[in-house]
Amino acid sequence: MTTRRAALLALSALPAAVSGAPPDEIVAHLKAQADAWDRAILAKDRAAIEANMADDFRQIDGRGDVETKASFVDGLVSPDLHLDPYTVEEFDVRVYGDTALLSGRTRMTGRYRGQPFKTHYRYIDVYVKQGGAWKIVSVQISRMPD
């Protein structure tokens, strides 16, 4: 099984596992879903990245610019961008009914158009349960000093 297919299967199976689940199970589900999304991003797996996102997704980046789902995904899978594996620090999940806030801090390194970069940022991802599935609807990042 390809990595892409495995990621898609993992993402598609998760919503069924949490319907009517207690809060701890919802938090564990969202953590697993966020981890799968990070793996899909590193693998540049467009289908798995998009499967986690609502159609009306928006990102506000560290400069205050707004990205749509299409522009966000295009940037991630661009051959100009290479991301090194990264970890999320201070990960936290808060659930409010059918809305969840996932936040943390990431130090990311890689290359863009052959030039190395490193960035340190804090983020918040907003997930909403739509049609029984949790989808990311918004991301906002704030750059932090190194």
Automatic annotation (TrEMBL):
Residues 31-136 form the DUF4440 domain. InterPro entries: DUF4440, NTF2-like_dom_sf. The keyword Signal applies. Keywords: Signal. Pfam families: DUF4440 (PF14534). Residues 1-20 form the signal peptide. This is Nuclear transport factor 2 family protein.
